[in-house]
Structures are given as structure tokens and as C-alpha cells.
Design goal:
By secondary structure, this protein is of the alpha+beta class. The protein has 10 helices and 6 strands. The strands form 2 sheets. Strands 4-5-3-6 form a 4-stranded antiparallel beta sheet. Helix 6 packs across helix 7, helix 7 packs antiparallel against helix 8 and helix 9 runs antiparallel to helix 10. The chain is globular.
């Protein structure tokens, strides 16, 4: 098999023959939406069901991390695998001893709905190889203490976003996203570029309150926090720039088997 993720998932699951596996996606790979890890988690879940087994979300995420990070040596983190397996709105901690803790964010339903109404996602049409961005980020992290302070800053922003959700102060999140994007751009020179900076500036001038480029950066999708009264202006500005809006919402469940027959 040439598809490395599916090949390794089959090897790990002990399935070597006699199956037909089909994948369907709404968007292309390589645009920073965690598609590789989501695919790996989903294939592991399907293969387990094929064998009559049930895997917990934690086990699916752990196995997907083993495939991508340990077997295939990809320079990535673990966040995509865990959110794909668990779904919902989660507070995920990646501990120094390599363990991972996942706790649901206990925010009012109205706050979650308000957050969905204020988020907009636009596909830039720009593809990038996340590995090159992440390799530079890791190199900077190893070479200079400044990168450590950037990581600390991003963690602090995440904590403040969590607090804003729990206290139903969703309006604060736009400014926090803008702050986190400024920090993230310090991680590697290729996180952003002149085209992405211009698109982000146009969105902000049209009324967006904050945002970020998805995934490792360098291309992919632009996630924006926009109050309802400014959504039409932001949409018109970015569509005029050639971007495509992608409808989004919250998936309250993680990877699951929706049909099973013997």
C-alpha cells in the first residue's frame, strides 16, 4: 500500500487482506484542518469494528499518535488526533511525561452557540507542507529561549479562552485569537507570508475582531472571529479576494461507527 497512514493502521490492527476501504472528504488534505490525523483515527476505528472490537477515544488517539509520530516520524503534535477521537469542546493537556488528559469545557450551551455564530472559515486555496513549517518551529524551540516564551504565551492565551467560554464572555475571544496569531507567527518564518498577512488585514479592516491561519500555517484556511453585524462585510471582502467560505459548526461527538452490519 502506498498510502502510509492506511498501511500503518492496517498493520497495527492486524488486518492484511480481504477488505475494501473507501475514504470521502469535503476538503483537500494539507490545509491545516487536521485531516491526516482525523483519517488515521477514523480508519483505526473502522478496522476495530471490522474485527468486532471497540476502541475508546483515548486508545484511538494514542494509536493514531503512535502511527504518525513514532512510525512515520512526522514532526507534529498530538492535538489533532485527540480532538478527532473525542470530539466536542475539550480542554486537552499534553503533559511532560507524554500522558494526555482530556476534560470537556463546561461552558453554557448559549456560549457555545454564540461562539459558532461568530466563527467564519475561509479556504485560501493555498497548500503547504506542514512538516517544513513544524521542523523550523522545533529548530527554533531547541535553539533559543525566546521560542519557549512564545509557547508559554500561547498556553496563557488558551487558558484565557477557556476562562472566557466558562464564564460565557465569548466576546473576548476575538482579541485573544488575534493575540495568539501574533505569537504563532514568531514560531517560524513560514507560518505566514505576505499574501496571508494581506488577507488577514483585509478581514480585520472589514470588521473581524481576530483570527488565525489554521494548522501549522503557511496556507490552508483562515479562521475568523466576527460579530454578526460584520459577517456580510467580511464575507464580501474575502470572496472578492478569491477565497471560498466553508460552513462550520461543532461536532459534539468524536470518531464513531455510524453503521455496522455482519
Amino acid at each position: 500500500l502506498k498510502h502510509d497512514l492506511i498501511r500503518e493502521a492496517m498493520k497495527m490492527s492486524g488486518v492484511s487482506k480481504g477488505i475494501e476501504l473507501t475514504t470521502i472528504a469535503d476538503l483537500p488534505a494539507g490545509i491545516g484542518l487536521g485531516s491526516s490525523s482525523t483519517l488515521t483515527v477514523g480508519v483505526l476505528n473502522a478496522l476495530a469494528a471490522f474485527k468486532g472490537e471497540r476502541r475508546s477515544p483515548a486508545d484511538l488517539a494514542r494509536r493514531a499518535c503512535e502511527i504518525e509520530i513514532e512510525c512515520l516520524k512526522r514532526p507534529i503534535g498530538k492535538q489533532d488526533q485527540y480532538i478527532a477521537a473525542f470530539g466536542g469542546l475539550q480542554d486537552i493537556h499534553f503533559n511532560r511525561d507524554e500522558t494526555v488528559t482530556v476534560e470537556p469545557v463546561l461552558c453554557p450551551g448559549a456560549a457555545r452557540d454564540q461562539l459558532v455564530r461568530r466563527l467564519m472559515l475561509f479556504y485560501t486555496g493555498m497548500h503547504r507542507e506542514a512538516g517544513s513549517v513544524l521542523k523550523e518551529a522545533r529548530s527554533r524551540l531547541a535553539e533559543q529561549n525566546g521560542a519557549l516564551s512564545t509557547i508559554d504565551g500561547l498556553v496563557h492565551v488558551a487558558e484565557r479562552v477557556h476562562a472566557a467560554l466558562v464564564s460565557a464572555k465569548v466576546s473576548r475571544i476575538g482579541r485573544l485569537l488575534d493575540e495568539s496569531w501574533a505569537l504563532k507567527k514568531k514560531m517560524a518564518s513560514s507560518v505566514s507570508n505576505s499574501v496571508l498577512d494581506t488577507l488577514y488585514a483585509r478581514a480585520m479592516n472589514a470588521g473581524a475582531e481576530g483570527g488565525k491561519v489554521s494548522g501549522a500555517g503557511g496556507g490552508g484556511c483562515l479562521l475568523l472571529f466576527v460579530k454578526p453585524s460584520a459577517r456580510a462585510r467580511v464575507r464580501n471582502e474575502l470572496v472578492k479576494a478569491g477565497l471560498r467560505e466553508v460552513p462550520i459548526g461543532f461536532e459534539l461527538e468524536g470518531s464513531r461507527v455510524i453503521h455496522y452490519s455482519v
